[in-house]
Recover the amino acids of this structure.
C-alpha cells in the first residue's frame, strides 16, 4: 500500500511479518511437501519405521511407522505443514487407518499443482480442475466397491482381509492372521457399535506377540483385590463408586486446631474414624457384595468391608470406572444416602488371574455382552506400544466397516482405477482444466510407485505394467510386495475399506486445494510480557 508521497505504508506491528504472492504460495507448498516426504518412506507393507525421541524429562523413545503418531510428535512452524498434520489427525479419528496415505497424496497433489502454477496457470483454475478430477475419482471408487453384508460368512472373510491388510504395514505383520482374528472377533461382538471403549486393551511385557489373546467371555481390570477380602466371588452385586475413602486420619490443610491436651486430638481422630465407619455402613446397606472405588480405600474401611464379606477394589482409575459402569450395567455413585435409587452392577463371577508376573481382576458373565478384553504381550515396551497402536488402527477400521460395509481391492489398485477414470473424464473437458485433471491422475499414480519404492523394487517397471493391466480392464490387479510382482488383489485377499479410501481422497484433495489458494501469509507480532 502506498501513501500520498508514494512511500510504502506498513499497517502491521513492528515485529509482524508478511509474505505475499508467489513467495507465500511456494513457502506453503514447500513446508507441506517437507511433511509429506517425512512420512513417505513409511507407506505400504514394506514401509520403514521412525524413532521418535523427546528431549524433555525422561527422554521418551517410541518406534513407529504410524503416520498420525509421527506427525503428532513433530513440532512444526510452517502453517501449511500444520494443515497436513491436521488432516492426518482427522483421518486417524475418523477411520483409524490411511494416516500416512492422506499426507503423501496431499503432498503429491501439491507437487503437481506447483508445477502447473509455475507454468503460469492460475491457482483457481488448478483448484477447479482438481475438483472435477476428484468427483470423477470418487464416482469410480464407489462403483468398484463390493458389499457382502447380506452374507455373514463372506462379510467376516472381508473383515479378516481388511484387518490383515491394515496390519501388514505394522509391527504385527508377521502374526497378522492371529491379530486379524482377534480384532474381528472383538469388533463383531460390538454388534454394530463404534464405541471402542467396550474393548479393553491390556499391555503386559514378557513373552512374544504371538502370546497375545482375546478374552471374549471376561472383562479384565488391571487392579488387585483388597487385603483380607475374598479373592473369588459368584453372583456378584457390584457398587461402583467415586468417593474419598481415606479420611480416617485427621487431614486439615490451611487451618489450625488448638487443643489443650493430647486426649482432645484423640477425640478428633475418633470422630473422623466414626464418620468413615458410618460411611462404610451406608455402603454395606446397599446390599452389594463387591465395592469398586475410583479413589484409594484406606486400611480402616477396607478392613470393615472385608469383615462384612465384601470384596473391595481400590484405585480403579477414571477410565476403568467409566468402562466398568458400561460393562457391568451399573451406576457410578459418589453419595450413599439413597440405596433404593442406585443401580448395582452385576456379573456371574469375579476372580483374580495371573498374566505374566502380574495379578488382574477378571469379571465373567457381564450383562453388557458387547464388552471384551485383549491382552497384548511383547518383548519390550516399544514393541507392545506399537502393537497397541497397530491393533487400535485395525479396530477403528473394522468398526467403521461394520457400519459402512463396502470393500474394494488394495495394493494400489484403487489409485490406478481412479487415475484411469480421471483421464477418461478429462477427454470430455474442453478447457484448460484438463491440465489440472491430468496432473491429479499423475498424483494418484504416484501412490503405488511409493509403495514399490519402499519395498526396494523397480517402481517404474511395476507401475507401467499395472497401468497396462488396468487399461485391459483388470481393475482388481495391484502390487504384490512379497515377491515384487503384480497379482489379482481379490484372489490374494488384499482388501481395504471403501470408507478409508473415500476419506483419504476427500481429505487430501481439500487440504491441497486450501494450500494452493494461499497468496498471503501474515505472521502476527508475538505478545510482549508485561512488567
Amino acid at each position: 500500500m502506498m501513501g500520498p508521497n508514494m512511500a510504502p505504508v506498513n499497517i502491521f506491528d513492528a515485529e509482524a511479518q508478511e509474505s505475499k504472492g508467489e513467495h507465500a504460495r511456494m513457502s506453503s507448498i514447500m513446508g507441506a511437501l517437507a511433511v509429506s516426504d517425512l512420512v513417505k518412506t513409511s507407506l505400504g507393507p514394506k514401509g520403514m519405521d521412525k524413532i521418535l525421541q523427546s528431549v524433555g524429562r525422561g527422554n521418551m523413545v517410541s518406534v513407529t511407522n504410524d503416520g498420525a503418531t509421527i506427525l503428532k510428535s513433530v513440532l512444526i512452524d510452517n502453517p501449511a505443514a500444520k494443515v497436513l498434520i491436521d488432516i492426518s489427525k482427522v483421518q486417524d479419528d475418523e477411520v483409524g487407518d490411511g494416516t500416512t496415505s492422506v499426507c503423501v497424496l496431499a503432498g503429491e497433489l501439491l507437487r503437481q499443482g506447483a508445477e502447473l502454477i509455475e507454468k503460469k496457470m492460475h491457482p483457481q483454475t488448478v483448484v477447479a480442475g482438481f475438483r472435477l478430477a476428484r468427483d470423477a475419482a470418487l464416482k469410480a471408487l464407489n462403483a468398484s466397491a463390493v458389499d457382502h453384508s447380506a452374507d455373514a460368512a463372506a462379510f467376516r472373510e472381508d473383515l479378516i482381509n481388511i484387518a490383515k491388510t491394515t496390519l501388514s504395514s505394522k509391527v504385527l505383520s508377521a502374526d497378522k492372521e492371529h491379530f486379524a482374528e482377534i480384532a474381528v472377533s472383538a469388533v463383531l461382538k460390538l454388534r454394530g457399535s463404534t464405541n471402542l471403549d467396550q474393548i479393553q486393551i491390556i499391555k503386559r511385557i514378557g513373552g512374544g506377540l504371538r502370546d497375545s489373546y482375546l478374552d471374549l467371555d471376561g472383562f479384565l481390570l488391571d487392579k488387585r483385590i483388597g487385603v483380607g477380602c475374598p479373592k473369588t466371588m459368584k453372583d456378584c452385586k457390584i457398587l461402583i463408586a467415586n468417593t474419598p475413602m481415606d479420611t480416617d486420619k485427621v487431614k486439615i490443610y490451611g487451618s489450625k486446631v488448638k487443643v489443650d491436651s493430647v486426649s482432645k486430638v484423640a477425640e478428633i481422630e475418633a470422630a473422623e474414624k466414626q464418620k468413615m465407619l458410618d460411611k462404610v455402613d451406608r455402603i454395606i446397606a446397599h446390599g452389594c457384595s463387591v465395592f469398586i472405588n475410583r479413589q484409594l480405600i484406606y486400611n480402616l474401611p477396607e478392613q470393615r468391608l472385608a469383615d462384612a464379606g465384601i470384596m473391595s477394589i481400590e484405585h480403579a482409575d477414571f477410565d476403568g470406572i467409566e468402562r466398568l459402569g458400561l460393562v457391568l450395567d451399573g451406576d457410578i455413585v459418589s453419595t450413599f444416602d439413597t440405596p433404593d435409587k442406585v443401580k448395582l452392577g452385576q456379573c456371574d463371577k469375579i476372580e483374580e488371574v495371573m498374566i505374566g508376573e502380574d495379578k488382574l481382576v477378571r469379571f465373567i458373565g457381564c450383562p453388557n455382552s458387547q464388552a471384551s478384553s485383549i491382552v497384548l504381550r511383547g518383548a519390550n515396551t516399544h514393541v507392545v506400544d506399537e502393537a497397541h497402536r497397530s491393533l487400535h488402527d485395525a479396530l477403528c477400521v473394522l468398526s467403521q466397516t461394520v457400519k459402512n460395509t463396502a470393500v474394494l481391492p488394495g495394493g494400489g489398485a484403487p489409485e490406478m482405477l481412479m487415475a484411469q477414470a480421471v483421464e477418461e473424464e478429462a477427454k470430455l473437458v474442453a478447457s484448460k482444466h484438463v491440465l489440472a485433471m491430468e496432473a491429479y491422475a499423475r498424483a494418484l499414480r504416484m501412490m503405488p510407485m511409493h509403495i514399490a519404492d519402499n519395498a526396494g523394487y523397480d517402481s517404474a517397471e511395476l507401475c507401467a505394467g499395472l497401468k497396462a493391466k488396468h487399461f485391459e480392464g483388470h481393475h482388481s490387479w495391484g502390487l504384490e510386495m512379497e515377491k515384487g510382482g503384480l497379482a489379482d488383489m481379490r484372489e490374494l485377499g488384499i482388501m481395504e475399506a471403501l470408507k478409508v479410501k473415500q476419506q483419504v481422497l476427500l481429505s487430501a484433495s481439500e487440504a491441497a486445494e486450501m494450500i494452493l489458494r494461499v497468496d498471503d501469509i501474515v505472521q502476527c507480532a508475538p505478545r510482549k510480557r508485561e512488567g
About this structure: The longest helix spans residues 262-284. The chain has a mean pLDDT of 84. The two ends are 35 Å apart (CA to CA).
